[in-house]
Amino acid sequence: VYRGNLPAVPMSAVDSTENAAAAVGEFGLRGGLVFFNEQERGLDLQVDAGLRQFAAGGVKGRDYAPREWVGRADLSFREHLSSLGDLWSQGGFEGRRVEDRPPMPLFIQPGFLWFDGSVRIQFVPVRGAYIDAQILGEWADYSAGALAPQLDLLDMKIRV
Questions:
Q1: For 58-81, what is each residue's pLDDT tens digit?
Q2: 91 vs 68: CA distance, rounded Å
Q3: How far is the C-alpha of 37 from the C-alpha of 42, rounded, in Å?
Q4: Closest C-alpha to 141, from 99, 103, 111
Q5: What does DSSP assign to residue 9?
Q6: Residue closest to 136 by CA, chosen among 94, 73, 96, 88
Q7: Tell me, what's the pLDDT at 6?
Q8: Is the pLDDT reported for residue 157 higher than 70?
Q9: What is the reported pTM?
Q10: SS3 state of residue 109
Q11: For residues 15 and 60, is the Cβ–Cβ distance under 8 A?
Q12: 3-state DSSP assignment of residue 159
């Protein structure tokens, strides 16, 4: 609950309020699937997802009903390469999407998208020495959507 008079300064349409409140309900799902798990190879999927629904009140301009979708999924694969060694590969993504974000003072973080992956190989020991190689990579996008595109006009450069 917020009590006070804090106008939404960064917004082009200021929506000040005396009292703002929000209630939230959540639903989540977590689990995994093992497609096969043998001595020579294995493949499994792990999932963690959720939905959060807000009900915001007290904002004068209109009633907001933010909805937040969040999730993470990971896929792992393992293969025994006979006389060479073992190979592991893993990939996953994580993300959040927010619909109908309210202005301040009720704040919900913007959405994002993140992908990651790795490949690892461990060779059979040669004369007692292990050789282990791994390649990792990730890509993330944390950019927020255009909340007030009119503010971009303030950043114009005048050419003479």
A1: 766 667 788 899 999 999 999 988
A2: 24
A3: 4
A4: 111
A5: T
A6: 88
A7: 45
A8: no
A9: 0.66
A10: coil
A11: yes
A12: coil
